[in-house]
Amino acid sequence: MTLTRAFLAIIRRDLVLAFRRRAEMINPLLFFILVITLFPLGIGAQPNLLQAIAPGVIWVAALLAAMLSLDGMFRSDFDDGSLEQMLLSPHPASLLVLAKVIAHWLVTGLPLLLVAPLLAVFLGLPSHALGVLLLTLLLGTPVLSLIGAIGVALTVGLRRGGMILSLLVLPLYVPVLIFAGNAVQMAASGLPVDAQISILTSMLLLALVLAPWPTAAALKMSIH
Amino acid sequence: MTIKPVTLTGERLSCIRDDRVLFKELNFTLPEGQVLLLEGKNGSGKTSLLRILCGFREADAGRVLWCGEEIDDSRYYADMAYVGHLDGIKKELTVLENLNVSLALGRPGRYSIFDALEKVHLAGYDDVPAQSLSAGQKRRLSLARLLITHNQLWILDEPFTSLDKAGIALIESLMREHCAAGGMIVLTSHHDIDLHDALVQRIYLS
Question: Where are the domains of chain A?
Answer without folding.
Answer: 2-222
